[in-house]
Predict the structure.
Amino acid sequence: SLSRITRSLYNVQFTFQKKISHTADSQDQRHRTIPASRPMLMRQFTGMVDSIIPQLVEQNDSALNFYQETNQKIFANIVKFLDAGGTEEEAVYLLPNSFPIRFYESGDLLNFHHKWKARTCYNAQEEIFHASVEELKQATNVIPGLSNYLRAPCFLRKKAGTKPFCPEGNRYCGILVWNQDLSDYKRVL
């Protein structure tokens, strides 16, 4: 159970403007205590190619070309489907998982603490990891020193003297994240 003084974290509020893929957004919604104003998907569809490019794909020219060509075909086919009389409600099922969602997310520090602790682990989903690290960096700009108390679970376990530092067992990422500064958190799957 949490200390009564922890309740003060409810008084600190953050709002972030986000752009993440449809897939990452679905994963991000698991943090139900941090509400967001998510748009209707097709209200963001313009007919133009619009997608989040995974880092691994971005680093390989052949994969990037294939990815971009595939997305061009997908978006062109969605436009054809709509022009042929398909409804937006039906077309939403044709959007690729990489389709970006743009929205605002607001919450209190207590619930962001829980999210950032879980999602700054190197085993977290790639986009959520990077978004969480970026949010925590921005929060640290507003509350200097915040990242001295809030990072990946292994960092917190090391600070508490709990061993093993990594709580992931055989899923340990192999990186001594608990010794890293937040500015050094970098990861490509």
User: Anything to note?
Assistant: The chain has a mean pLDDT of 93. The beta strands are 13-21, 36-37, 100-108.
